[in-house]
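Re: [ENG-882] Designed sequences occasionally contain unexpected residues at chain ends

Forwarding the minimal case from QA. Structure tokens:
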């Protein structure tokens, strides 16, 4: 970023503007504030503005109306709405139309506010939209591995050959373990080596084991290892298209690995604004929703789905302290709440039952 880029803030409340100036005074860009919508439009046309933060409820003009006018004049300007109101009903339309990139809730958390502004200024222009839908992934490889009466080392060698197939890395792989309980040698040792193999190669893998031994092993010691185990091939259902809304990269990587290992398609966004834009441009079968996000409460995504009458189940995921009451969950149309830290079996069961 350079110091020549301008961030412009508009609000009809002078104390709010003073707070924003103090908050951003040491950031590597110029910050200006105003209470006048006309000044905003003049600056956009005369000088160019990298980012605008606009209060929604202003006496002369709604923030969303102002940002729509800004977008017509300067499509590359990042647009952020600042609001203290409880729901997104008057903002969702502007998000759907692409006039608003992000939402910041009053009162905000200073560190999250600064982080969001930097992220928007660092984004490439083509990252604001979702014009091109992702192509469906190719069907996964299926490899059957005979285990009965064979030494564990030989079985592991066959598994390694399957996992090392170049197409496995590209498409993902289903490993059907036939006669697993009758392997010669340590069954636990074989499964532990298989975990190391899959994780080490970075392959999205699903195991099929009719004996239940592999499933019991992963339930006991798997923890956060994103490897999926089914009892039979009939459980490999038609893949779902799942949207993950989560703002921590490590959690996103875990959930994407787990969901794709189960054979589903996964996309991830990190804010309420991005979630609403994505839901407006592509169909999804399920939303996994973190309840605490940098720009607003995650529950706003569920409310948006409910208000738009979209038939998409929502599974909320929360920490112990931010778990919602049953009344708020029911009012937002959330089907189920899960608690962090993530557990493989709990996530898979929720996806299966949705």
């Amino acid at each position: 970023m350079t110091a020549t880029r301008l961030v412009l803030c508009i609000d009809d409340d002078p104390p709010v503007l003073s707070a924003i100036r103090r908050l951003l005074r040491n950031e590597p860009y110029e910050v200006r504030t105003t209470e006048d919508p006309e000044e905003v439009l003049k600056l956009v046309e005369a000088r160019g503005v990298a980012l605008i933060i606009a209060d929604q409820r202003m006496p002369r003009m709604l923030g969303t109306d102002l940002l729509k006018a800004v977008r017509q004049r300067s499509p590359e300007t990042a647009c952020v709405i600042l609001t203290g109101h409880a729901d997104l009903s008057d903002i969702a339309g502007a998000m759907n139309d692409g006039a608003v990139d992000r939402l910041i809730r009053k009162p905000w958390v200073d560190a999250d506010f600064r982080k969001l502004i930097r992220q928007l200024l660092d984004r490439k222009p083509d990252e604001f939209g979702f014009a091109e839908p992702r192509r469906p992934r190719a069907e996964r490889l299926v490899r059957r591995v005979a285990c009965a009466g064979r030494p564990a080392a030989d079985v592991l060698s066959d598994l390694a050959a399957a996992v090392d197939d170049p197409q496995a890395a590209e498409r993902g792989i289903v490993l059907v373990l036939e006669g697993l309980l009758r392997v010669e040698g340590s069954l636990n040792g074989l499964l532990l080596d298989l975990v190391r193999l899959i994780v080490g190669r970075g392959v999205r893998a699903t195991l099929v084991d009719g004996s239940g031994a592999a499933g019991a092993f992963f339930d006991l010691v798997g923890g956060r290892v994103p490897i999926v185990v089914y009892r039979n091939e009939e459980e490999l259902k038609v893949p779902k298209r799942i949207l993950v809304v989560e703002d921590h990269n490590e959690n996103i990587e875990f959930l994407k690995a787990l969901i794709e290992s189960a054979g589903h398609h996964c996309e991830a966004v990190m804010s309420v604004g991005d979630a609403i834009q994505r839901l407006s441009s592509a169909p999804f079968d399920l939303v996994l929703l973190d309840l605490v996000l940098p720009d607003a409460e995650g529950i706003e995504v569920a409310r948006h789905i409910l208000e738009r009458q979209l038939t998409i189940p929502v599974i909320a995921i929360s920490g112990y302290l931010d778990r919602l009451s049953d009344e708020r969950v029911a009012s937002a149309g959330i089907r189920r709440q899960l608690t962090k830290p993530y557990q493989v079996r709990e996530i898979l069961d929720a996806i299966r039952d949705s």
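QA comment: On inspection the terminal residues look reasonable. Confidence is low (pLDDT under 50) at residues 124-136. Proposing we downgrade this to a documentation issue.
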